[in-house]
Amino acid sequence: MASTLLARARELRKSVKSLQDLELLKLFKSEINFELSSNHFKNAPRGSPEEFVVDSGSPHTKDVILRRKFHSGEELAISAILGPPNYENDLVFPRDVFMKVCLKKPALSSILQFDCEVYEETSKGSEFDIHNAYYLRSPTCLTPSIYRGPLFSKLDEELQDALKEYLVAKGIGENLTNFLLHYLHNREQQQYVNWLKKGEAFVAKNGPSSQFLETHSS
């Protein structure tokens, strides 16, 4: 009698576990279908990297690297990554982009570094602000403990405007900032869908048996 009850308890636990796995599998499928059928960024301008080369890197990385080399030998590198979500404003892109710009003159070890933020403008696509600007004598000056100069906001306003115009002249304009916003958000969505598909495959393989799925998934 006791062994029969124990066996029935085991079967009940298996059935409950299978039902839970089945519901989880349905959730994965539903979320995947929703993401694939939704075009969250269809109304946003795609922009273009223009003269910049996008480093392919790993599809799992969070940032994107862009490089450009001018005829003069000057090199420009951009590292961009999504910032934290902000759902207070009704915008297409829920995140701003943190953008680090580094410029290096040929035959010199010094670097000009700009810390910027790219954000969506409801009426005209996107824009960017400079938060910090540094003159670094060498790459070793990237150490955080080394003093890099006054805050950008403390600089003369005409100098602030001139530095931004300088970056725009180097190709960091609206077309590029539109590209960064769209590219990074779109890639994040693709990474999320890939994660969902891995979760779905794991549950399907290690969860309920195929016979149970055939019986209950219709």
From TrEMBL:
It comes from the Eukaryota. This is Mitochondrial glycoprotein. GO terms for cellular component: mitochondrial matrix. Pfam families: MAM33.
